[in-house]
Amino acid sequence: MRSLFFAMLRLLLSSSLPKASSSNIPPTLAWKGYLNAMIAIYIQTNNLLAEKFHRMNFMGEDLDSLSLKELQSLEHQLDAAIKSIRSRKNQAMFESISALQKKDKALQDHNNSLLKKIKEREKKTGQQEGQLIQCSNSSSVLLPQYCVTSSRDGFVERVGGENGSAPPSLAEPNSLLPAWMLRPTTNE
Q1: pLDDT digits (tens, 9 = 90+) for 19-37
Q2: What does 89-105 look like in DSSP terms, one character per residue?
Q3: Domain housing 61
Q4: Which of these three, 21, 49, 65, is where a domain ends?
Q5: Measured between alpha carbons, how far is 148 from 177 in angstroms, rounded to an integer?
Q6: Any bridge partners for residue 135, and if so which?
Q7: Which of 9, 30, 110, 180 falls 20 to 30 Å from 49 in CA-CA distance?
Q8: Which of 65, 89, 107 marks a domain boundary?
């Protein structure tokens, strides 16, 4: 980097003097402006080179020219960078785990509420099935009196008949009816 400084200094000294323009600017002010521009260029170039060497050192390149103190400093910087990366990674993982736990709890609550609704519906359907199981008191000339029962699968059977006869066979019409085909009878 010292060689760069001397190269810039040589360039500055070897360049021709800035000429005063027709706006009556004194030569010293022109030199100051020129010198400030050259210093800005030098600082910018120096910063770029320092950043390049710093990146190269971080990548493990060109370490031969570094002293023991510089190597230890570089090692310390690398350790600090690794700790910072690990802490950010751990923080992101903990946030992700926390969000997933919240989602899990919400899903469990939703599942529990759905189970309650299912149980309530089962209770209601059980009560409705209990109401459907009734014997009709009206007699028909063509058909004997039967007691209507419903099964879990939604079919309704006629059981019994006149004089305690056995249930009708499956071949007999209307021996098994789906629940939706039966009309509830009301005795008013």
Answers
A1: 555 555 666 666 777 777 8
A2: HHHHHHHHHHHHHHHHH
A3: 2-65
A4: 65
A5: 10
A6: 147
A7: 30
A8: 65
Q: Which two tokens stand for residue 83?
A: 């700790």
Structural tokens at position 29: 């002010």
Query: How many residues appear in the chain?
Result: 188
Q: Report how far residue 36's alpha carbon sits from residue 17's, in angstroms, rounded to the nearest whole number.
A: 14
The answer to whether residues 65 and 56 touch, using CB atoms and an 8 Å cutoff, is no
Judged by DSSP in three states, 150 sits in: strand
Q: How far apart are CA 66 and CA 153, in angstroms?
A: 85
CA quadruple 52, 54, 57, 58: dihedral sign: negative
CA distance 174 to 154: 15
Q: Which residues pair with 159 in a beta bridge?
A: 147
Task: Note the pLDDT tens digit of each residue in 120-140.
Answer: 998 888 777 766 665 444 444
